[in-house]
Amino acid sequence: MTDRRYKQRKSSIVAKIAAVGCASIVLAGCIGFGIASAGGSAQEVDAFGIDALSAPVSEADTATFAENATDSSAREATVLASTAKRDISKGIEAIEAEEEAARIAAEEAARAEEAVRVAAAEAAKAEQQARAAQDSAASALASLPDVDFSVGKEAFISTWTDRIDAYLAGSPLAGQGATFATAAWDYGVDPRWSPAISNTESSKGAVCFKPYNAWGWGQSGWGSWEEAINAHVAGLASVYGYSITYGAAMKYCPPNYDHWFNATLGQMMMI
Among the residues of the chain, which ranges form H helices? Predict the structure, then answer.
């Protein structure tokens, strides 16, 4: 009984080992079949030239492929570089033009602002100088003796005829004292003013730009000193008033009124 059980157990173990062995064989066969099938498929693909990696490649084919790849890369690089350069250059030009325009505008604005400041400073300076000159003129005018019209016509003409003749002695206007004095009385003008202007403008008639025009008056001349003196004194009374002022000098001789004022006033003080 014992021997029978032993034999049965042994047979069972042998059967199990056989079954395991068969299973291993079957599994190995399947794996081998799969590998063979894969190999066969690879060979079939190679046969139709689809698998480029497994197919043999000649040196000529390799060189051609490399050359084509190089040419293609070069063309692509050229196109990309050209496009990039064109686009970037346009952008740079636009930016540079904008920056240049902004720079020019800023410079023009700065120049305009500077011109305004300079003009304002010059105007202030001129105004200050004008005030100083007027103050000085007022002071100088204060030193000019008054003319007394209350003495009457005869005394007035007699007094100023002598004084003006003494002032004009030796000049082309010499001997015209009575003409100046009478015209001054008739038009209510300082008798010293017209003779003094003749010295400032023509050195007492020595250098006249028109006949008998010793005062730079208008654009024409006259036929005699008497006619000229009466016309000039009448013009002074009508346009400038009684006697010299700084404002009258600015109007009579705009280019150089300060010098004109001082020179003429100085001559008036000499009469």
Answer: 2-47, 59-142, 153-168, 177-187, 193-202, 225-239, 246-252, 257-270
